Amino acid sequence: MSFPIINRLVSRPRSFAAGAAVLLGSAGVVMGGGVSEAAAASPQTVAKQMIPDAAQYSCFDKIVSHESGWNPQASNASSGAYGLVQALPASKMSSAGADWKTNPATQIEWGLDYMNERYGSPCDAWDFWQSNGWY
Length: 135
Description:
This protein is mainly alpha-helical. It has one domain. Helices cover 52% and strands 3% of the residues. The longest helix is centred in the middle third of the chain and has 15 residues, at 54-68.
């Protein structure tokens, strides 16, 4: 039996823990007689796992807080921007995974890649955001 999502997570070590947490949480996995940590993982918790540098996480947090309020389903009706990082067009996030509409870890991965490629880092993206009101 093949499990494409598990194979995708295993092939991406950077987001494995975060993706597994979201996957297990969405499946309602219960461990140790209580709700598992994965089931309770918020998008912020997932991002902290994916961004170990505290300064870079802080900058990422500021952008996402302004852009979507950490709502993975946030949508801008006028522009079509979508998700935690308000990708425009939203479908660009499909390059990080087919589950981009529903998986915060996929949205975070895409957002980090975008910030690193376009600006150099989340903090450089935040600097740009502060000057322009967008990134």
